[in-house]
Amino acid sequence: MEPFTTLTAVAVPLMRDNIDTDAIIPSREIRSVSKKGLADGLFAGWRYLAIGGRDPDPGFILNDAALKNARILVAGENFGCGSSREHAVWALAEYGFRAIVTPSFNPIFRNNCLANGVLPVILDRAVVEPIARGLGAAPGSFLTVDLEEQELRDEVGGRWRFDIDTEEKQALLSGLDPIARTLQQSSAIASFRDRDAQARPWAYSSIGRS
Amino acid sequence: MGRTIFDKIWDGHAIGGPSDDADLLLIDRILLHERTGGVALKSLSARDIPVSAPDHVFAVMDHIVDTFPGRTSKTLMPTGTEFIETTRAGAQAAGIRLFDLDSPDQGIVHVMSPELGIVLPGTTLICPDSHTCSQGALGALAWGIGSTEAEHALATSTLKVQRPRRMRITISGRLGPGVTAKDLALALLGRFGVGGGAGHIVEYAGSAVEALDIEQRLTLCNMATEFAAFSAIIAPDTATIDYLKGRRFVPAGGDWNRAVEDWLALSSDPDAEFDTELSFDASGVAPMVTWGTTPQQVVAIDGAVPAADDAGQTGAESRERALRYMGLEPGTPLESLAIDAAFIGSCTNSRIGDLRRAAEILDGRKVAPGVKAICVPGSSTVKRRAEEEGLHRIFQRAGFEWRESGCSMCFFAGGESFGPQDRVVSSTNRNFESRQGPGTRTHLASPETVAASALAGHIADPRKLAA
Ligand code: SF4
């Protein structure tokens, strides 16, 4: 995972509520058992004129030339609801997005972001809406996400603090692999399991202990 | 201060004890399917990381497999075979139990796992699938995750998780005749909105919940993900014990007795504190039908497309989009809507009880001309059982297709679908744009309502037809 420190980049406002993972990456765009090759299918149902086609719909914001190198997405409530498919995050990340700003995330989607080094930024609706309006009025504007300081900044002096769990923050800053980190605690896990198997033999016996 | 059932399970699984930050939880059971599980297995093996406790992992083919009789690993979805074969190879290499296409136990993961007793009260269970919350119906702490988190769970038998807040929804009264847990789940979404459970683990309690059988509890908990909840849970009771007794992967002998003792003691203390408490009266709930493209856009079947959202959360733009997508005008009565297709299936509503109740409505009647009607049993076990009872004949004589089990047309993966702008009344859980096929218009409802609507050719109230 690439460490996340500070990112200054073009931001896209997409202020629909309840943007679901089917919309982020339609099932039909997931063609292989891979975490790659998904960027083209990102928002395919909205981005292209025809289902399965690749002719850009000029009405969809991502097709605005000023937003070509966007890396920050500003979205409505309950972003990433629906199916748990991680392909939604893989597609966003492959397209270039490294931070998503919204009043609320679906919990599975949020965890999927963290697992892929994409920073979930939660701010009040009363904060997100004016930011999105500002971006809409001046397409191509930059935002800065500073994870160390837990601060979002715009180009005209706006600054907003956001919360994030300490461990999650460290994981993003370090970019260290979560599996490797947990495996360092293997013996603690094994002895916890041994004690648990004594206390709850029924949770183990029916399936055979490995 | 007392603890909730959720706290008890969580604290008992927190390695190193519960903390204020994210906790490392022991995971008792891992379920995988070919759509999201294969990629996790493949990615682990590419990194040479072994699965830490393969006996605790169960894999099944449900999402991408076709549901036509005589199906094989070839699928209508152009690259579906790759998902099936990758999962098969990955499960074999890791020594994971696999319920493959030809297994008598194959089925939708959230249908077959309770059936086989893979999910037990008081356990932690995860699956890279959002409807894993269904299993909370048996008193397990079960939740959906992504593929990368599944890799972590497979490699370490643990997951690092932030503790959700606790919510209790106390549902008083009792559902009326012809009204089901599906209608209740939709009514709750209508009242509290699709963001209503955000950040919370929801405990369903109260007389109306206790009165539900286990299948109906599975239906209720199934839609907790539509509620944006971390998951849902219902305290185990004697109905839970009776349901689990004798199933394949439940403990036996002395371990069973000990388990039952543990399970019956597992509930929220009387003085447990919840971060959020909601209450709801089940008595007034009618059969519910969605009109829009989120499950909270729902009304009672005798209602009309409303002029404004009740839950008031989707915003005017989303609402306009939904009306346009669904081809509807405010004020249109739901029962006046002609349908093109009817679908009974999915992890929400495809268990034997669902099929029995739908068959009761279909018995001796015919699907309206021009309506494509499909029934997909939730598991091979459900299918066999239904056939033993002769239900398949009732469905087929009425004009329903009778399929092999799987997720099927609950979602469109590139294979089979309903047509653009087809209006489908469906016993599934998601009415998102293009969920059941590009441009397809989905109305969520109970299996009874789907059956009644298939007969009428328009959305119809099953209570008017009940035998
Ligand atoms: S039936 Fe539908 S909702 Fe359920 S697991 Fe399958 S695809 Fe998901």
From TrEMBL, chain A:
Location of the Aconitase A/isopropylmalate dehydratase small subunit swivel domain: 1-124
InterPro entries: 3-IsopropMal_deHydase_ssu, Aconitase/3IPM_dehydase_swvl, AconitaseA/IPMdHydase_ssu_swvl, IPMI_Swivel, LeuD
A molecular-function term among this protein's GO annotations: 3-isopropylmalate dehydratase activity
One cellular-component annotation, GO: 3-isopropylmalate dehydratase complex
Major enzyme class: lyase
Key word Lyase present: yes
Keywords, sorted A to Z: Amino-acid biosynthesis, Branched-chain amino acid biosynthesis, Leucine biosynthesis, Lyase
The UniProt record lists the keyword Lyase: yes
Biological process per Gene Ontology, one example term: L-leucine biosynthetic process
Pathway: Amino-acid biosynthesis; L-leucine biosynthesis; L-leucine from 3-methyl-2-oxobutanoate: step 2/4
Substrates-to-products reaction catalysed: (2R,3S)-3-isopropylmalate = (2S)-2-isopropylmalate
Enzyme Commission (EC) number: 4.2.1.33
Alphabetical list of PANTHER family matching this protein: 3-ISOPROPYLMALATE DEHYDRATASE SMALL SUBUNIT, 3-ISOPROPYLMALATE DEHYDRATASE SMALL SUBUNIT 2-RELATED-RELATED
Family recorded in the similarity comment: Belongs to the LeuD family. LeuD type 1 subfamily.
Complexes and interactors: Heterodimer of LeuC and LeuD.
Function: Catalyzes the isomerization between 2-isopropylmalate and 3-isopropylmalate, via the formation of 2-isopropylmaleate.
Identification of the protein by name: 3-isopropylmalate dehydratase small subunit
From TrEMBL, chain B:
First-level EC class: lyase
UniProt entry keywords in alphabetical sequence: 4Fe-4S, Amino-acid biosynthesis, Branched-chain amino acid biosynthesis, Iron, Iron-sulfur, Leucine biosynthesis, Lyase, Metal-binding
Pathway noted in the entry: Amino-acid biosynthesis; L-leucine biosynthesis; L-leucine from 3-methyl-2-oxobutanoate: step 2/4
Gene Ontology molecular function terms on file: 3-isopropylmalate dehydratase activity; 4 iron, 4 sulfur cluster binding; metal ion binding
Reaction(s) the record says it catalyses: (2R,3S)-3-isopropylmalate = (2S)-2-isopropylmalate
Domain Aconitase/3-isopropylmalate dehydratase large subunit alpha/beta/alpha: 7-457
PANTHER family referenced in this protein's UniProt entry, alphabetically: 3-ISOPROPYLMALATE DEHYDRATASE (PTHR43822:SF9), HOMOACONITASE, MITOCHONDRIAL-RELATED (PTHR43822)
Function according to Swiss-Prot or TrEMBL: Catalyzes the isomerization between 2-isopropylmalate and 3-isopropylmalate, via the formation of 2-isopropylmaleate.
Stated name of the protein: 3-isopropylmalate dehydratase
Native source organism of the sequence: Parasphingopyxis lamellibrachiae
